[in-house]
Each structure stands twice: as C-alpha cells, then as structure tokens.
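Q:
My hope is that you can spare some time for a protein that puzzles me. I hope you can help me see how the letters and the tokens relate. Thank you; the sequence and its tokens follow:
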Amino acid sequence: MKKILQITLFVFLLLLIGLACHKYENKRKMHKNPLIAEYYDTPYGVPPFDKIKPKYFLPAFKYAIKQHKREINRIIHNLHEPNFDNTIKALDQSGTILENISNIFFNLNEAATSPELQKIAEKISPLLTAHYDKIYMNQKLFRRVMAVYQKRQRLHLNTEDSMLLEKTYRQFINHGALLSKADKRKLRKINKKLSVLSLKFGNNVLQEVNRYNLIIDNPKDLDGLPENLIQQAAEIAKEHGDSGKWYFKINRSMITPFLTYCKNRNLREQIFKAYITKGDHNDSLDNKAIVNQIVNLRLQKARLLRFKTWADYKLQDRMAKNPDNVYKMLDQVWAKALPAAKKEANQLQQIIYSQGDTFKLQPWDWWFYAEKIRQKKYNLDENQLRPYFSLNNVLEKGVFYTANRLYGLTFRKAKNIPVYAPDVEAYEVWQGTDSIIGILYLDFFPRANKRGGAWTTTFRPQYYKNGHRVIPIVSIVCNFTPPTKQQPSLLSLEEVRTLFHEFGHALHELLSNVHCRSISGTNVPLDFVEFPSQLMEEWAVSPQVMRVYAKHYKTGRLIPEELIRKIDSSKYFNQGFATVEYMAAAYLDMDWHTVKTNKNYDVNKFEKKSMQKIHLIPQIVERYRSTYFNHIFSGGYSAGYYSYLWADVIVQDAFDYFRQKGLFNPELAQKLRHLLSQGGSQDPMKLYVQFRGRPPKVDALLRARGFVK
C-alpha cells in the first residue's frame, strides 16, 4: 500500500513538473512573439514590422484575448464599490495588447494582405466578435457600469470623463446588455455571422479587381491615353509575363483616366461594365447572397435591440439622430443637384451630335465628353496639370506646408522605423522643434495585395498613461499612379484633393489630446468624422496654397497664373454629376438599411427600384453598386455613407469663415486645432459652435457647388 502511494505521489509530481514545464514553454514562446507587448521595443513603440510573420498572429490573438479576460475579471471581482476609476476608466485601459495586435493585423490585411492573413482573418474575426460579446453581455460587469451611470449627477465629472461614462453605458446597451439570456444567444450568433460575411464580401471585391485585366495589344487602341497611364499598363503586363501588351485594371486610379481619355468607345464600355459588375457574376466571387444575408441579419439585430431598422440603430449616436433627418438633408441637396446633372447631360449630348455621332450618351461616355467640355469651355486639360502635381511636391510643399502654417507642425523622414512594405515611408511629426507628437506612415501606390481606394487608419491611438501623452501612430494609404523610370508619380487634381483629404483624417489623430483611448482622434460620430478631411481639401485647391506646391517636375517652374485661374473658374464644372453620382450611393445605403422586412431580396431589382425612386438619370450610375459597396458591407459606413455630404455642409460653412478672416489666420487656426484636439470628448456640434460662433448653414454648400448664386 505504501509503495502504491509512493508511486502515485511520484506520478503526480511528474505531472506537476510536466505542467509547469509546459506553462514555462508556452510563456517562453509568447515572449518570443514580437506582437505581444503593450509598448513595443522599437523607436517610439511602433509595430515591429521587420519581425512580424503571419504565423505569430493566431497565438498572439489567443494570448491577448486571455489577458483581456483576466483584466475584465479583475474589474468584475473588485471588492470596492463601483466608481469611475475602478470600473469605467479601468475598462478603457483594458485590452491594450489585444488592441495593438488587432490594429496591426487588420491594417495589414487591407494594405498588404496574403492568403495566410485572409485565412487567419476568417478564424479570428468570429473569435473577436464572441470575445467582445461576452464582455458587453456580462451581467455582473454591466451592473457595475450601471451603478456608476446611475450616480453620474453626483460624481461631478469633467467633460471628457462624462462623455466616456455616457459612451461606455451606451455601448453596453447597444451590445445587448439588457436582453434576456435567450436573446443574447441570438445576438451572439448574428454578430458572429456578420463578422464572417463582412470579411468575405471585402475579399471577394479584392479578388474581382485582381483577376480582371483589360488587355490591349494594338497600340492604336491607346490613342488619347496619358503617357504615364500607358507606362503603368505596360509594367503591369510585364508583371504578368506579357511584354509588348498593356493591362488595365478596374481600380479607380486606372479606370478614371482611362474613361476620360480613351478614344475607343468600345473599350470604354468594356472596362466600365467590368467595373460596375464586380461581385455580380453568379460565380464564387458573387456578393448578392452576402448582401442579402447582411441586410437581413442587421435588421434582426436592430429588432432584438428594440429599433425599427438598422439605420435607426446606427444613427442614434450620430449628429443626424434618425433616418428622417438624413433623407431630409439628402432631398434638400438632391433637388438642386439633379437638375444640374440633367443640364450637364444635355451639354454632353450636344457635343456628341456636333461631332456627327448619333448615339445616346451612356455612363461610359460621361468622363470622356465632360473632359472635352472642360477643355473647350475652360481650355483646361488634365494632362496640362499633372506635370505640376508631382507627389513629392504636393506632399512636402502642399500638405506639410499647410500643416506647418496652420499648426506649426514639421515632418522628418525616419530611416530607423520599420515599415510593412518596401515602398512605405515613415515620418516623425514634430511640434516645432520641441516635441514629437506622432508617427505618420505613408503608403501611396497600388499593390496586388492591397485593396483599392484611399483611407487613413491608426496602429495606435493617442492617450495618456501615468500623466504622459502616448503619441499616436497613423497611416495614410492610397492608390496613386506610381512613378516610372521616365517620370515621378504625377497626380491628377482629384488625387491632390485625395491626399489632402486623407491628411485631414491623419491630423485629427495626430493633434488629438485626450486622456482616454476610446474617445481620442477620430472616435467621433461618423457624420462628423469627415469634417477635418474634407476641410483640408479646401486648402488643396486654394490659389494661395497652389502657388507654393504646384511646380513643374522637370523645370521647377511655378504653375502659370493662367492655369490657376482656369482651375478656379472651373470649380463648378461637372458638380451636378459628382454630387448626383455620390448621393445616389448614399440613398442606396439608406434604402438598404431602412428595410423593415426580412426576406430574400433580389439585389439588382432592389437597387433599380431605389434609383427609380430618386429619378436617377440613365447616363449616371451610382458611385458604388451594392455588390462592391465596401463602405457599407465590409467597412464601417452602413447607414452612414451620407456622412460625406453632411460633413461638407459644415466644411463649406467653416471655410467661408477662413475666407473672411484669412486662410492662415492664427486665431482661427488655434480654434480649429482645439476642435480637432478634443476627439470624441465633447458633442461635435457644441465644438463647432465654439469655433464658428453659430450652427452651420447649408447655403455655403449650395454656393460651393454652383447650385445657387
């Protein structure tokens, strides 16, 4: 008996030793994982991109989720009475490692993806959704949050802390904290499905773009196209092992100049139809079934949370507040924009007839004939402008110059900071020469593993820790025409605006000066988030700034005053088209998200009915059709695409103020900086009224687009 006990004890000790060794080995492996850190051992704590491999993500995510659970449990089991610090602030400070890893992973999956990352995303997205569902549906945790919220009047919190408390409480409510156990189970299933479907939608669109090539093998078919576009197409063909031909992709940076200048109408039609039918080919990349599932699941979720529609659910915390206010704003501008677009369509048709052609204007003709009118009416050719808009000049003498004049910022290229792709550059952003305020990554050119479009994102938000400001790490991602052996990257006027636009978002993050991560930077209502970005566009096209950055890339000569006058006089040109094309997509977004019935929708019929309702003219196709509308089915803009127009009402009102006082008026610049520095710590309309002295008016927008005098 004694021997049996000894053997049992020995085996038990071996098991304990084995378990301890296993835990030690796991811990050792975790410490070797470069992703697992609250603050990375790199310059300024930037992500260690030079050490990150796809294989590290899944174990890092699993570790970080466990770590976050432990932090949440400490809050739940805190023996002290719930208060702002031990509950609300503790929640805001929890999950830092998980947030770091998530920011890195999802940013890379958009800007430098791979089959490995996409497979990991399919695994991790539902895991993360389930993890956060458990947090927000935890009844014990919610009771602590609610206990603090119920005594908020007696706490005498400052403005920022009051907003954090309100936002935290609303997050729990909106994530189902008040639901029954059965309804919570339903909500978890819905959230899990939505996370997978959104990911699949975006991947399908990316694969559609990558697999399509308009192949030209006859040099005559290149007639009219800009030389830089031809060179880019030749280089893409070489990458496919097809030298001597030209490959044109259906991303915006290629398709817009192709439609503007290609004289071969059949080719314009071919590439345009390929562009507007992405995700609509009844094959493995078709998105119609996914759209259906997403729309129905969102409605189910809204109903569970006691909202009539998904739009009602999403708009509750935005400036618009409800769908009626959105439609009211859209209708107000549409009434002026549609007649302008019809007038433009008639002008284009007359150009066609004047050339002896008899065909009716089609959507693939618009850019081509609009350019002819611009050249005839304003004697302004886009190809005249590009040589004056070299990317380096626009960046350094335009964007950086404007930020310096307004806010005193300087930008220093950093050579010792790791980047995630060879053509990405990193900059230190300084306040004068005294203190660094952030790190800015610039990723400008297309890659096969990068989704189309332009966006700004963060690898780390700004916040305070132990009384010190943790600087933000921000990234601007674009798809500009890349440089060739013959010339640098030359931007179109629209691409110049895009660069200033994304830089406005970056400034919102870089100038942020709040204490809590969850309300810093661009963590503001969605219909306000575009205000800083669209406002920066106004400096991009102002003659005063253009005279600084618009220099010929060969001669260094400043852009002629005559060209500046032409640009300024043509600012109302094609505004009917631009506004209607965008607004049609905004209406489509709202229509999808104000449905009140769960059913199997015929996506194309729904879309057609939506456009008929607003009387969209056949010569214009909405900017994004449902099957490739990444903003609303794969991004964060569902029931929110209207935000660009909502923000532009405020933008035009604000820039009118600068026109009156001076584009670089130091007093106004300081007021604007204060507005940007507050992140989501205050109601944005209150901040705007502090800046402007009154609420915004729509008049400036209508004037800026030439719809009224």
Residues 323-354 form the longest helix (32 residues). The chain has a mean pLDDT of 93. The CA atoms of residues 408 and 692 lie 22 Å apart.
